[in-house]
Amino acid sequence: MSKLLVPIDFSEYSAVAVEYACQIAQQAGQSLDLAHIFSDHSNIYINAQNDPSLKDPRVPMAERDMKNLVAEISKKYPNIEVNTLFSDGNLYDEIKKITNANEYDAVVMGTKGSSGLEAIFIGSNTYDTILNTKTPLLAIPLESTELKKDRIALLCNFKDAELTCLSQALPLFQKDFELVLIHVNAKDREIKDIDSDFKTWINRIENELGISDITYIIKPQSLFMRQKESVAQAVTSVLIDEQIDVLLLTKSRKSVFRQLTEPNVIKKLAFDIKIPTFFARVIPTNG
Question: What confidence tens digit (pLDDT) does each residue in 206-222 have?
Protein backbone atom coordinates (compact mmCIF):
# COMPACT_ATOMS: atom_id res chain seq x y z
CA MET A 1 0.00 0.00 0.00
CA SER A 2 1.26 3.50 -0.81
CA LYS A 3 1.84 5.86 2.11
CA LEU A 4 1.89 9.50 3.15
CA LEU A 5 4.24 10.82 5.84
CA VAL A 6 2.87 13.59 8.08
CA PRO A 7 5.21 15.28 10.61
CA ILE A 8 3.28 16.01 13.81
CA ASP A 9 3.99 18.63 16.48
CA PHE A 10 0.40 18.76 17.81
CA SER A 11 -0.02 22.38 16.68
CA GLU A 12 -2.94 23.72 14.66
CA TYR A 13 -0.64 23.72 11.64
CA SER A 14 0.07 20.00 11.78
CA ALA A 15 -3.62 19.38 12.56
CA VAL A 16 -4.55 21.00 9.24
CA ALA A 17 -1.92 18.88 7.45
CA VAL A 18 -3.29 15.71 9.07
CA GLU A 19 -6.85 16.53 8.00
CA TYR A 20 -5.74 17.35 4.45
CA ALA A 21 -3.69 14.12 4.28
CA CYS A 22 -6.68 12.13 5.54
CA GLN A 23 -8.88 13.55 2.81
CA ILE A 24 -6.27 12.61 0.19
CA ALA A 25 -5.92 9.11 1.64
CA GLN A 26 -9.68 8.68 1.78
CA GLN A 27 -9.90 9.33 -1.97
CA ALA A 28 -6.60 7.87 -3.20
CA GLY A 29 -6.12 4.94 -0.80
CA GLN A 30 -2.84 5.67 1.02
CA SER A 31 -2.05 4.75 4.60
CA LEU A 32 -0.63 7.42 6.94
CA ASP A 33 2.60 7.47 8.92
CA LEU A 34 2.45 10.14 11.62
CA ALA A 35 5.93 11.16 12.79
CA HIS A 36 6.70 13.15 15.94
CA ILE A 37 10.28 14.38 16.23
CA PHE A 38 11.66 15.37 19.65
CA SER A 39 13.77 18.24 18.34
CA ASP A 40 14.29 20.39 21.48
CA HIS A 41 16.85 18.11 23.13
CA SER A 42 18.79 15.19 21.72
CA ASN A 43 18.04 11.58 22.64
CA ILE A 44 15.14 12.18 25.04
CA TYR A 45 13.07 9.56 23.24
CA ILE A 46 15.89 7.01 22.97
CA ASN A 47 16.82 7.54 26.64
CA ALA A 48 13.21 7.02 27.67
CA GLN A 49 13.12 3.68 25.86
CA ASN A 50 16.46 2.47 27.26
CA ASP A 51 16.15 3.67 30.85
CA PRO A 52 12.70 4.51 32.29
CA SER A 53 14.35 6.57 35.05
CA LEU A 54 15.54 9.01 32.39
CA LYS A 55 12.10 9.44 30.88
CA ASP A 56 11.45 13.09 30.04
CA PRO A 57 7.81 14.07 30.82
CA ARG A 58 7.40 15.23 27.22
CA VAL A 59 7.72 11.64 26.00
CA PRO A 60 4.55 10.23 27.67
CA MET A 61 2.72 13.47 26.85
CA ALA A 62 3.58 13.09 23.15
CA GLU A 63 2.68 9.40 23.20
CA ARG A 64 -0.67 10.22 24.81
CA ASP A 65 -1.41 13.03 22.35
CA MET A 66 -0.48 10.78 19.42
CA LYS A 67 -2.75 8.02 20.71
CA ASN A 68 -5.62 10.50 20.97
CA LEU A 69 -4.92 11.79 17.46
CA VAL A 70 -4.95 8.29 16.00
CA ALA A 71 -8.25 7.60 17.77
CA GLU A 72 -9.77 10.76 16.27
CA ILE A 73 -8.61 9.81 12.79
CA SER A 74 -9.88 6.24 13.14
CA LYS A 75 -13.28 7.48 14.25
CA LYS A 76 -13.64 9.97 11.37
CA TYR A 77 -11.84 7.91 8.71
CA PRO A 78 -12.22 4.24 9.74
CA ASN A 79 -10.87 2.92 6.43
CA ILE A 80 -7.49 4.67 6.71
CA GLU A 81 -4.59 2.72 8.19
CA VAL A 82 -2.56 4.90 10.58
CA ASN A 83 0.93 4.18 11.93
CA THR A 84 3.03 6.26 14.34
CA LEU A 85 6.75 7.03 14.48
CA PHE A 86 8.85 8.76 17.16
CA SER A 87 12.47 9.88 16.91
CA ASP A 88 14.98 12.43 18.21
CA GLY A 89 16.91 15.02 16.26
CA ASN A 90 16.60 17.85 13.78
CA LEU A 91 13.16 17.79 12.16
CA TYR A 92 14.35 18.00 8.59
CA ASP A 93 17.23 15.54 9.04
CA GLU A 94 14.86 13.03 10.60
CA ILE A 95 12.34 13.46 7.80
CA LYS A 96 15.13 12.77 5.35
CA LYS A 97 16.15 9.62 7.25
CA ILE A 98 12.57 8.34 7.33
CA THR A 99 11.97 9.01 3.64
CA ASN A 100 15.29 7.42 2.70
CA ALA A 101 14.27 4.25 4.53
CA ASN A 102 10.65 4.12 3.32
CA GLU A 103 8.82 4.95 0.11
CA TYR A 104 6.11 7.62 0.35
CA ASP A 105 3.90 9.28 -2.22
CA ALA A 106 4.59 12.55 -0.38
CA VAL A 107 5.49 14.25 2.87
CA VAL A 108 2.48 16.36 3.89
CA MET A 109 3.53 19.29 6.09
CA GLY A 110 1.71 22.15 7.71
CA THR A 111 3.28 25.57 7.25
CA LYS A 112 3.14 28.60 9.49
CA GLY A 113 4.14 32.25 9.45
CA SER A 114 3.26 35.08 7.13
CA SER A 115 4.29 32.95 4.16
CA GLY A 116 3.99 29.20 3.90
CA LEU A 117 7.06 28.99 1.71
CA GLU A 118 9.07 31.18 4.04
CA ALA A 119 8.22 28.87 6.92
CA ILE A 120 9.67 25.93 5.01
CA PHE A 121 12.74 27.58 3.56
CA ILE A 122 14.08 29.73 6.41
CA GLY A 123 17.73 28.79 6.84
CA SER A 124 20.07 27.28 4.29
CA ASN A 125 20.14 23.86 6.00
CA THR A 126 16.37 23.53 5.82
CA TYR A 127 16.32 24.78 2.25
CA ASP A 128 18.99 22.31 1.15
CA THR A 129 17.35 19.41 2.98
CA ILE A 130 13.99 19.94 1.30
CA LEU A 131 15.64 20.74 -2.02
CA ASN A 132 17.43 17.38 -1.99
CA THR A 133 14.73 15.18 -0.53
CA LYS A 134 13.91 12.06 -2.50
CA THR A 135 10.22 12.35 -1.66
CA PRO A 136 7.71 14.92 -2.94
CA LEU A 137 6.62 17.52 -0.40
CA LEU A 138 3.09 18.87 -0.12
CA ALA A 139 3.02 22.09 1.94
CA ILE A 140 -0.39 22.89 3.48
CA PRO A 141 -1.12 26.44 4.69
CA LEU A 142 -3.36 26.97 7.67
CA GLU A 143 -6.23 28.19 5.48
CA SER A 144 -6.48 24.89 3.58
CA THR A 145 -8.77 22.90 5.83
CA GLU A 146 -10.52 21.10 2.95
CA LEU A 147 -9.11 19.18 -0.01
CA LYS A 148 -9.96 21.12 -3.16
CA LYS A 149 -8.57 20.08 -6.52
CA ASP A 150 -10.89 21.48 -9.15
CA ARG A 151 -8.06 23.53 -10.68
CA ILE A 152 -4.44 22.41 -10.28
CA ALA A 153 -1.71 24.59 -11.77
CA LEU A 154 1.68 23.55 -13.10
CA LEU A 155 4.34 26.14 -13.87
CA CYS A 156 5.37 25.39 -17.40
CA ASN A 157 8.59 26.01 -19.32
CA PHE A 158 8.18 22.92 -21.53
CA LYS A 159 10.77 20.83 -19.64
CA ASP A 160 10.60 17.07 -19.10
CA ALA A 161 10.94 17.65 -15.33
CA GLU A 162 7.48 19.21 -15.40
CA LEU A 163 5.93 16.00 -16.74
CA THR A 164 7.78 14.10 -14.01
CA CYS A 165 6.38 16.51 -11.42
CA LEU A 166 2.88 15.99 -12.73
CA SER A 167 3.27 12.20 -12.69
CA GLN A 168 4.40 12.37 -9.05
CA ALA A 169 1.32 14.42 -8.11
CA LEU A 170 -1.17 12.00 -9.68
CA PRO A 171 -1.09 9.44 -6.81
CA LEU A 172 -2.35 12.24 -4.55
CA PHE A 173 -4.80 14.07 -6.79
CA GLN A 174 -5.62 11.38 -9.38
CA LYS A 175 -6.94 12.74 -12.70
CA ASP A 176 -10.31 14.29 -11.92
CA PHE A 177 -9.21 17.93 -12.09
CA GLU A 178 -8.61 20.70 -14.57
CA LEU A 179 -4.90 21.11 -15.23
CA VAL A 180 -3.93 24.76 -15.72
CA LEU A 181 -0.52 25.23 -17.33
CA ILE A 182 1.06 28.60 -16.51
CA HIS A 183 3.85 30.02 -18.65
CA VAL A 184 5.42 33.36 -17.73
CA ASN A 185 6.61 34.96 -20.96
CA ALA A 186 9.83 36.32 -19.46
CA LYS A 187 11.63 36.38 -22.81
CA ASP A 188 8.87 38.23 -24.69
CA ARG A 189 8.48 35.45 -27.23
CA GLU A 190 5.88 35.62 -29.98
CA ILE A 191 2.54 34.37 -28.67
CA LYS A 192 1.99 32.17 -31.73
CA ASP A 193 5.26 30.36 -31.00
CA ILE A 194 4.23 29.73 -27.39
CA ASP A 195 0.81 28.53 -28.58
CA SER A 196 2.58 26.04 -30.83
CA ASP A 197 4.71 24.81 -27.92
CA PHE A 198 1.60 24.39 -25.80
CA LYS A 199 -0.15 22.35 -28.50
CA THR A 200 2.76 19.91 -28.60
CA TRP A 201 3.07 19.87 -24.80
CA ILE A 202 -0.62 19.20 -24.19
CA ASN A 203 -0.50 16.30 -26.66
CA ARG A 204 2.37 14.80 -24.66
CA ILE A 205 0.49 15.18 -21.36
CA GLU A 206 -2.62 13.57 -22.83
CA ASN A 207 -0.69 10.67 -24.38
CA GLU A 208 1.81 10.02 -21.56
CA LEU A 209 -0.27 10.78 -18.46
CA GLY A 210 -3.88 10.41 -19.60
CA ILE A 211 -4.99 13.87 -18.47
CA SER A 212 -7.47 15.43 -20.86
CA ASP A 213 -8.94 18.49 -19.12
CA ILE A 214 -6.14 20.98 -19.82
CA THR A 215 -6.06 24.74 -20.25
CA TYR A 216 -3.12 27.13 -20.42
CA ILE A 217 -2.26 30.70 -19.57
CA ILE A 218 0.50 32.83 -21.10
CA LYS A 219 1.35 35.51 -18.53
CA PRO A 220 3.32 38.59 -19.60
CA GLN A 221 5.51 40.29 -17.04
CA SER A 222 3.67 43.52 -16.28
CA LEU A 223 5.43 46.82 -15.70
CA PHE A 224 5.28 48.55 -12.31
CA MET A 225 7.08 51.85 -11.90
CA ARG A 226 8.92 51.12 -15.17
CA GLN A 227 10.17 47.82 -13.83
CA LYS A 228 9.06 44.38 -14.90
CA GLU A 229 7.39 42.31 -12.23
CA SER A 230 9.34 39.23 -11.17
CA VAL A 231 8.34 35.71 -12.18
CA ALA A 232 7.21 35.16 -8.58
CA GLN A 233 4.92 38.20 -8.73
CA ALA A 234 3.55 37.12 -12.11
CA VAL A 235 2.77 33.63 -10.83
CA THR A 236 1.14 34.98 -7.68
CA SER A 237 -1.25 37.17 -9.68
CA VAL A 238 -2.28 34.20 -11.86
CA LEU A 239 -2.94 32.00 -8.83
CA ILE A 240 -5.25 34.64 -7.39
CA ASP A 241 -6.99 35.60 -10.65
CA GLU A 242 -7.58 32.01 -11.74
CA GLN A 243 -8.63 30.70 -8.30
CA ILE A 244 -6.11 27.88 -8.37
CA ASP A 245 -6.57 25.18 -5.72
CA VAL A 246 -3.12 23.52 -5.78
CA LEU A 247 0.22 24.60 -7.25
CA LEU A 248 2.74 22.08 -8.61
CA LEU A 249 6.43 23.02 -8.77
CA THR A 250 9.44 21.24 -10.19
CA LYS A 251 12.76 21.41 -8.39
CA SER A 252 15.02 21.72 -11.39
CA ARG A 253 17.73 24.25 -10.64
CA LYS A 254 16.92 25.90 -13.94
CA SER A 255 13.25 26.22 -13.12
CA VAL A 256 11.32 29.01 -11.47
CA PHE A 257 11.55 26.97 -8.24
CA ARG A 258 14.78 28.70 -7.28
CA GLN A 259 13.33 32.18 -7.64
CA LEU A 260 10.13 31.30 -5.84
CA THR A 261 11.90 29.77 -2.85
CA GLU A 262 15.05 31.81 -2.26
CA PRO A 263 14.54 33.26 1.23
CA ASN A 264 15.65 36.79 0.29
CA VAL A 265 13.18 36.88 -2.61
CA ILE A 266 10.37 35.70 -0.39
CA LYS A 267 11.04 38.33 2.24
CA LYS A 268 11.50 41.10 -0.30
CA LEU A 269 8.31 40.35 -2.18
CA ALA A 270 6.21 39.05 0.71
CA PHE A 271 5.48 36.13 -1.59
CA ASP A 272 2.61 34.44 0.14
CA ILE A 273 1.15 31.26 -1.29
CA LYS A 274 -2.12 30.58 0.47
CA ILE A 275 -2.82 27.33 -1.37
CA PRO A 276 -1.33 23.84 -1.00
CA THR A 277 1.93 23.62 -2.93
CA PHE A 278 3.44 20.38 -4.23
CA PHE A 279 7.22 20.22 -4.65
CA ALA A 280 8.30 17.31 -6.85
CA ARG A 281 11.13 15.12 -5.66
CA VAL A 282 14.57 15.76 -7.10
CA ILE A 283 15.49 13.59 -10.05
CA PRO A 284 19.23 12.83 -10.09
CA THR A 285 21.03 14.22 -13.11
CA ASN A 286 24.23 13.06 -14.71
CA GLY A 287 27.29 15.19 -14.03
Answer: 999 999 999 999 998 77
